[in-house]
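chain below, 348 aa
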Amino acid sequence: MKQTLALTLLLGMALMLGIVPFSARAQQSTVAQRQSASAATVVQHDPRALAASAGWLAHAPRMPAAAEVRTCLKCHGGDPKVAAFLESPMAVMGDSRTPMAVDGCEGCHGDSAAHVAGKAPYPAIVFSGPHASPVSVRNEVCLGCHQERQAGPLMNWQGSSMERADLSCTDCHSAMAAKDPVLVRATQPQICFKCHARQRAESYMYSHHPIREGLVVCSDCHNAMGSPGPHLLKEFTVNQTCYNCHADKRGPLLWEHQPVRENCLNCHTPHGSPWARLLKEPVNFLCSSCHSAEANMSGGAFGGAHSIPFGGPGSSFFNSALANQRTCINCHSQVHGSNSPAGAFFFR
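prediction:
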């Protein structure tokens, strides 16, 4: 009996010696978890802590954001651009994702203490005008926020044609506006046309995509911030981009026209053309660029000299047909492809 009691006491002491350190460790872990959760809550609700954790600012703010903004508005409040900016999404002080909530005007313009004190004519970072900061500095400010939150559209910015051309975000975008003109469909084309003058001229041609009419805009097809495809297209190929609107041409079709499958630009020009249907040239001459005696020995209406109206000997029937504006698609109307069992020649 005494031996059993002694063994029980020894076992109890051993358990106590093992449990006490375990409890201490558990208590320490619980305290650490609570401290971590408290710190996360502070970061989540405090814009300045959020900015520091995200690495937005390399310096501590000199004053609260609201007070700093009031200091700037004492001089700049009468500027119409500043008034418009205060109506923009970037100026929402209650949204911790905006630079204004994080560090006021300094969120974009950098440390401006010397400028406020009258020791410097401009803030650390200037986005426009003759005293604009280097392009890399301006872009770094914009990408500091937008590259993380808009990773999809901006994932191809590095190495894109826009970056290689040494363009800054503010060359196209306007932060000092209630609504950025390049993000508004009605005004976007005019921003792009400032550089793309040829496309602007083509938009006034007889046949054109309804860009000026506001039904199609540049960003419907292009991603100016970079693209894995050609011509800054949103898709990987020209055809995939066109199929977003022209889905009836996608196929698959029983009888396919090879140039159509290859590239829509073989026959069409996308912005504007003097010929119908955005074609690169009149239908007969466009078809003859492939279907000729020299190209593929197809003969017929496009057999060498016979393809030129009134030009040279040969069949007067074919020459007359071309001269009287009888085009190939009068008969071969299904030029993009056909699902008819008898559609090998793309007839009606």
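The two ends are 109 Å apart (CA to CA). The first helix runs from residue 2 to 45.
thats it, cya
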